[in-house]
Amino acid sequence: MIKFPVPDDSCEYFDKEHETMTREQIEALQVERLRETVARCMKNPIYKKRLEEAGVTPESISSVADIRRIPFTTKSDLRDNYPFGLSCVPLRDCVRLHSSSGTTGNPTVILHTQNDLDEWANQVARNLWMVGLRPDDVFQNSSGYGMFTGGLGFQYGAERLGMLTVPAAAGNSLRQIKFMRDFGTTALHAVPSYVTRLYEVMQEQGVDPRKDTKLKVLAIGAEPHSEEQRQRIQNMLGVKAYNSFGMSEMCGPGVGFECKEQNGLHFWEDYYIVEIVDPETLEPVPDGEIGELVLTSIKREAMPLLRYRTRDLTRVLGRTCPCGRNHVRIDRMKGRSDDMMVLRGVNIFPIQIEKILMNFKELASNYLITLTTDQDNDNMTVEVELEELFTDDYGRLESLRKEVTRQLKDEILLTPIVKLVPKGSLPVSEGKAVRVVDKRKVYQ
Amino acid sequence: MTIHQLSIFVENQQGTLLKVLDILKEAGIQLVATTIADTQEYGIYRVICSEPTRAYIILKEAGINVALTDVLALELDNQPGRAADAIRVISAAGVSIKYMYTFLLGGKGVMIFRADPCDKAKEAIILNKLKFIAEEDLSKLL
User: Which residues are bridge partners to B101 per DSSP?
Assistant: First the structure.
């Protein structure tokens, strides 16, 4: 029995019916699914109380805009009700859970029913199909497995599409490269900093990704990165790199993905209602303006989240696309609001620093920002690795350091201490890269 | 007229020189002369050694920031005033010296320096019959 049919290879869409809906159709479906979701949430005592206090019933929802009457849900709600407090179905209906690492408190736990997992796989398959992958492709998933959703999320989605899927997991770069060559990998999923690492190892091993591998598509995500970093990755490996957005609270990867236009990520509005709000006033901001991404999952059974504040900052780029999909296009994440550094009253995102550093071909892509306090003054030190010793001259190294400092100052409006460090001297993580170390906290 | 010098970018931190030196030791490279200044954060460790090209490749493969630099090398008699005489000639030609170091090898003084512009320095060396050291000469002295 084929439960989930896969379209012909020539079809542009994995799920043509939903992917090519008009805006009117999308919104009509959203109203219907939001009502169902509110009804489902009423089965959970915490949600029930909140919805009743706000006077929200499924019947009272008549337009997508009615979502604004629903209170927000935050990460603290998940932590406070750890582990199963926000579930909307009995545990016997759940078949899996995923959890965040919990570095800043209780971990957050997300439950899934079998239907949730099936829909999630469909979402991921839709994304991978969208960027040209077909059942003939070989998909290597170099993402962490286990509790992190990037592993199983892409695994099931790639399998749903029908690809030969290699659960390579993260780390062991030599083995990753061997897999790529031996299995004829055509598509790779990894966090961007790890793609860079893999390329370095390829260089050390004398492997030319263009000649020695069959790679044609990269999926990168789970770590904020700049357009410059994407360009650099594309140039390194000679293939297109598509930005993927996911978060375990919404299922995992598959929430949003770039189409071949590479002009924003399509967020699947048959699964989510997408809002961008001012993080201070929580009022919606107009399209094009940066605000906090707020998501409501409208197709999930076990743990739908109502107006979940993601802390990701981004903006709406448009609601149409030459690819034929009218699902909202969201800009790459501008950083997370909890990544934000406030130095001497200036708000700075690591991505701003990265963007500048990437412009210097003399510099490698590994960098570390350290914040310190010196006589009540906040200081930022940016250590960046030297790609190649391009000179034997202290003067020219100093000029490079000064030019980097000047450009950073223009971007972040304060003068950082820039240090050039030898290649390989900064810590390399094989998962999410640690870019900021805030040593100021000891004084607080 | 020029010889190869390794220029190695190192952090001013305990253990960084040892890492480089251990790699060279492992490869059986013999050091002839080395120099590094006491700068604040990083330094360029300059090395004259046997088989500089092989040493360069080995360091590069080990992920070290290294460059192979051409520097001028003069052989001077081991007597007072010879360095001054040599520099006087270079200086008179309008050449500035970026950096310089000297050492004794086989009873002879060796002066290594980087000149700007290098061509003018070479010209002055030839015209004034200063004795320069080529790569082959250096390996003979070892």
Answer: B112
